[in-house]
Amino acid sequence: MKTSASRNEDGGVALSSIVFPSLIGRSLKDENGREIGRIVSFIIDSSGEVREVLAENKNEEFTKYSVERIKVDQEEIFLVPEVEKRAENLCGKFPLIYKKREILEKLFRNKEIMPEIYESLSAELDKSINEMRTEAQNLLNEIERQIQFQENMIKSLHLARTFLEMEHGVGNVRDEIFRQSLLSIIREIKYASYRKMNLLKTKERVIGVALQAGKEGAEASTADSYVGQKPVISVRMADE
């Protein structure tokens, strides 16, 4: 299988640069570095392309994940959250489509493209733009839902800590059990806060690229009023 090396924005190595068999038997971790399970194999489609990774957790339960969510950072393998992967794809495609739309508008304004070609291509690009706008809104809704979930989790953990502290204070919980439970709660608060922070950063990225693309799109779309005209096609001839 031919692979090529590439790196993600955060420095992690994309899975396409790794020979898949070398990952079998390795530990798969979440964004906080906690083990999700052990990679047991990969799932291919009818053409033989690897599509999913199959992992087994400590309860001997199997779960499959898209290989696009796998990231290798040095010697560790991480599962990128689905919303982050969706945001990465959106932030990569959104500006590119808008740039193509802008170039198309300039070609039409300069009378270097036929009106029927302009109309056909602009319709396809506008369709893609509308689909990405819908995806951006759906993604923002999902991110907001997950942020709320983490906020509720943090609140519940603080309530749990309060109960633990009170019961330990009156002598209903032994010191050793209290210390173990308190460490577990504090660790989970840290993990939940980290997840919330990452979600907020992802939300800012999505909003930022959507606003920028929308601004560029508004500037480019003014040429639509010229569609009814029949421009003369400019052809540049070089002297031989």
Write the layout of secondary structure elements.
Blueprint: E1 13-14, E2 27-29, E3 35-44, E4 50-56, E5 62-66, E6 70-73, E7 76-79, H1 82-109, H2 115-169, H3 175-220
Parallel strand pairs: 2-7
Antiparallel strand pairs: 1-6, 2-3, 3-4, 4-5, 6-7
Question: Short summary of the structure?
Answer:
With 240 residues, this protein is an alpha+beta fold.
The SS-based structural class is alpha+beta
Order of helices and strands: EEEEEEEHHH
Major β-sheet profile: 7 strands, mixed
Q: Label the overall shape.
A: elongated
Identify low-pLDDT runs: 1-7, 222-240
Total domain count: 2
Q: How far is the first residue's CA from the last residue's CA?
A: 48 Å
Strand percentage: 5-15%
